Each structure stands twice: as structure tokens, then as C-alpha cells.
Amino acid sequence: MPKSKVRKKSVYTPPEGVLQARSAEQARHAQPSPRWYVALMVALLLVGLLWIVVYYIAGDDIPFMVSLSAWNFAIGFGLMVAGLVMSMRWR
């Protein structure tokens, strides 16, 4: 059986302006997040979890939680989702 020929691909070299613009943009985005960002992210996750746990355990005894009824789940999960969205942007 004959061997197939190997194609030689030319090496791609991007235009000069593209490399310089992209490297400056990546350097700007690669900076680490400030310390308050991590603290806020963890706080949102924990406050959301704590809100739902308190609603399950003592929701009938707390007047404003009784008036919110099912919105307590939206508040708790909304806080947790905000923390999760922040975790995707954390560096």
C-alpha cells in the first residue's frame, strides 16, 4: 500500500497591529481581584444560605419573613446566584 503524502502547512503570522493590541488588553484583564471582592463574594453566598436556613427553621416566628412568604426563596437564591456570578469573575 502506498504511503500518503504529508502536506506542509505554512505557519500563520498575524498582522503586527493585532498582537500589540491583544497583549495590552490581556495584561489589563489579568490583574488579580481586590481583597474586598473575595470577601463580598463569600458574604453573599453565606448570607443567601443563612437566609434560606433561617426561613426554614424560624420563618413562622419572624414577622417580615411571614409577610414575604415564598419571596424568601427568591431572596436567598438571588444572593447565592450573585455570589456565584462574582466567583466566575474572580482572579
Describe this structure as you would to a colleague:
The protein has 91 residues and is an all-alpha fold. 69% of the residues lie in helices and 0% in strands. The mean pLDDT is 86. Helix 2 runs antiparallel to helix 4. The longest helix has 24 residues.
Rounded to the nearest angstrom, the radius of gyration is 26 Å
Provide the residue-averaged pLDDT: 86
* Strand/helix succession: HHHH
Helix content: 55-70%
Number of strands: 0
Q: What is the tally of helical segments?
A: 4
Largest sheet: none
- Low-pLDDT segments, ≥5 res: none
Write the layout of secondary structure elements.
Elements lengths: L15 H14 L5 H24 L4 H6 L2 H19 L2
Fill in the keyword field for this structure:
4 helices; mainly alpha; 69% helix
What's a quick, concise take on this entry?
This protein has 4 helices and no strands.
